[in-house]
Amino acid sequence: MSQMKRNPLVLGNKTLKDVTDDICAPLERFPSKGWMGLFLAAKTLFLFYIATIAIVIATGIGLLGVNHPVAWGTMIITFVFWIGIGHAGTLISAILFLFRQRWRTSVARTAEAMTVFAVMTAGIFPLIHTGRPWLDFWLFPYPNQRGPLWVNFRSPLLWDVFAVSTYATVSTVFWFVGLIPDFATIKDRATNKIRRTIYGALSLGWRGTAKNWSHYEMVYLILAGLSTPLVLSVHTIVSFDFAVSNLPGWHATIFPPYFVAGAIFSGFAMVITLFTLVRIGWPEFKNYVTLDHMEVMNKIIMMTGLMVGYAYGSEFLIAWYSGNDYERYVFMNRAMGPYAWSYWIMICCNVVIPQLFWFKKFRRSIPVMFVVSIFVNIGMWFERFVITVTSLHRDFLPSNWGQYAWSIYDTCILVGSFGMFLTIFLLYLRVFPAISIAEIKPVLHVGKDEEGGH
Amino acid sequence: MAKAIGGIAGIFLKEATVLKAAARVRESGFVKFDAITPYPVHGMEEACGIKRSTIPYVAFAAGCTGLMAALALVWYTSVVDWPLNIGGKPMFSLPAFIPIMFELTVLFAALSSVVALFVHAGMPKVDPPVIDKDLTCHKFAIFIPENDVGYNADRVEKLLRELGADEVKKVAEY
Predict the structure, then answer these.
(1) Is B6 on the interface with A (CB under 8 A)?
(2) What residues of B are in contact with residue A214 (Cβ under 8 Å)?
């Protein structure tokens, strides 16, 4: 059965020592010019983002394009966009772990990091969107002296507060638990005292005895098991923010699975974008994140892209089948109204362009997948734009119609958020092991003859 | 992890050797020994006779606590302390409370299992004893503490050498 032989997950016949050396190398050498250049650019953009937010908060939310009738704009669109990005990380680290997909090992750490940073980036938007961010602590239920006044537990917006904060906490903890043994590795090979102290503190005194590993693996399994329904619940609840309302275009039962598929779609696109760059910057990682890994992720992009495309079609069918004039109008307006351009950008980027991945040649081509992943990122931002803006701008009463008054501040906030994400991500690549050292070692033999592979 | 204790450690270079060695050490009657490996070695728990971790029970109990805490929170705030009549719907509208209950169940279960791991593994610990710096990289070890059943320095050293240890070290505290 030679044709059934699996490809090795790690190339180059690495020994255990090679693995540690390769993965620790980026942390132990002076940063390259390429990294420095990217970091300076990202940091400048981040500072620009902070300044923009400061102006928006100091002056008021009116600087943005939100107004009557489009009261949800860039903040909500970009929040959903970043939260969605995060979902692929949890899918890789938790769901694929439960399904025993061993290829996930090479990409799980960085994908999970992407999750944590994307959720951090996303979390800022609803906080500013409230308009008076200095009162954001009102979002949490706590005993207070404003009479017995509590948050409304029947509101999807409040469910979102709980879902996103739980998701941020559990993802961060899951990620950190995965990092503990690797911090111990870095501590033990440290040649100077400062490095030893810092990584020693981060490793929390991990020793790696068989008893420790036994508990550790159990906790990892539990966290994966808990993160799986959690990640599905988060985007389900984000979709409830829309679906629980009565607005045509939002009030749809397909929203939860549609949002989750879209989130995974956009998240995998971001993983591909980042990994094509990481493979250029950290060439030693090419043996760990191989073209096979990239190809598998491209297949997932294509599949979830088809699911999203199915949802777009299904929405039209149900709007027609409902016989409801308002519902029908919203969808005709989406495809042919004043915002038709955004709808067709979305269709092109999310449904048409990923079809390239039917061809193996394109699935395994780094330039092609990079370009496609960028298109998917753009397309998924436009998906949220289409859902939010086109549904709001023409509702039941024609006298209530209007346009979204996009302002320069909307652009600055959207572009600036990438500065925040990339700054944190680039720092992570420099100081944390970007591939799990302890997890990659047990899969070294996969696909090799003498030990039988899988 | 109880108080630090001395003993003897054998350093091994191969996963297969250390796995066999652990099983043999156990057959020789030692019960308090431990294996130190850079990654979770498949089959090591059986070889060392380690029982299944009890952390799932902690996770289950904490999950139930989280569920009940969430139910208590939404019930007290939305039914007792600040009842709001919304369209004549019942005060105790359970379906609307499910998301909150689910999230707090997951939060409690996840954080408690990690705390349980820290308790079991004696973490956080400042500057833990290190037998060999390569044990988190590419070497493996079996450590037999001096308070183990039938401990005798010469016998332990001989046993570890026989089992293929590359190096045998006396450890002052571990």
Answers:
(1) no
(2) 45, 50, 52-53
Give which of A414, A393, A441 is closest to A76, Cα–Cα: A414
The interface predicted TM-score (ipTM) is: 0.92
pLDDT in tens, A161-180: 999 999 999 999 999 999 99
Residues A185 and A199: beta-carbon distance below 8 Å: no
Verify whether the Cβ–Cβ distance A185 to B137 is below 8 Å: yes
Which sign does the torsion angle of CA A119, A79, A303, A269 carry? negative
What's the rounded mean pLDDT across residues A59-81? 91
What is the pLDDT tens value at each position of chain B, 174 positions in all?
456 788 888 899 888 888 888 988 888 888 888 899 999 988 888 888 888 999 999 999 999 999 999 999 999 999 998 888 878 888 898 999 999 999 999 999 999 999 999 999 888 888 888 888 888 888 999 998 888 887 888 888 888 888 888 888 888 777
If asked whether residues B63 and B116 sit together in one domain, one would say yes
Residue A453 lies in a domain: no
Domains: count for chain A: 1
* CATH at A288: 1.20.1630.10
Does the residue A451 lie in any domain? Answer: no
Q: Which of B79, B97, B121 marks a domain boundary?
A: B121
Question: Within this chain, do residues B109 and B66 fall inside the same structural domain, yes or no?
Answer: yes
Measured in degrees and rounded to the nearest 5, phi and psi for residue A161 equal: -55, -45
Strands B34-36 and B167-171 turn out to be unpaired
Q: Which domain holds residue B62?
A: 55-121
Position B76 in a domain: yes
Residue B116 lies in a domain: yes
What predicted TM-score, i.e. pTM, was given to this entire model? 0.92
- Nearest CA to A158 out of A245, A223, A238 is that of A238
Count of domains for chain B = 2
Which among A159, A169, A214 has the least Cβ separation from residue B50?
A214
